[in-house]
Amino acid sequence: MKRIGIIMVAALMSMGSFAQSAKAVLDKAAATITAQSGVKANFKMTTANGSTSGTIAIKGKKFYATTPQAKVWFDGKTQWTYLKNNDEVNVSNPTEAQLQAINPYNFIHLYKRGYTYTMNTAGNDYVIHLMASSADRKIKELFISVNKKNYQPKQVKMLQGKKWTTFDINSIKKESIPDSQFRFNAKDFPKAEVIDLR
What we know:
Elements: H1 2-32, E1 39-47, E2 50-59, E3 62-66, E4 70-74, E5 79-83, E6 88-92, H2 96-102, H3 107-110, E7 115-122, E8 125-132, E9 139-147, E10 153-160, E11 163-174, E12 193-196
């Protein structure tokens, strides 16, 4: 019995350290994309309805994403979404889940609370699996692939409801980005209809 107890304690301790190392990997991944001046990257977003590619600029909680179909600005509070086909701009104050659906890097704020972690390796990557601790979470599950050498995130796969969305990320580089890039400028879209959804 004593031996079984020792084995169980050792197993629990190793699980605790494994979870801690998963968080440490996410901490390092977050650090690679949180430069004070800003970071830019290319991404491909895949859903059940198809896929699209684009670019994203990030600075703290602010971001600016562009795809062939839309442009999205977020200044930390307000989000402007320009839809090219309709020539309209929707203005909103998005929820955490809505931000994650657009910004693959929102996980850098998300993972720190409300999720449990496990980690595996796949080739040159760490793959961290996050499960929501509460049923209230809109994002129930995430898989985050991180390069072992430079800790840059390569893929974010998340489950909202019963739908998976996958972001493949590449060409990450630090760049000085002015704050004005994260706010919609009506002068650049003089004919667009602005719809305030706040």
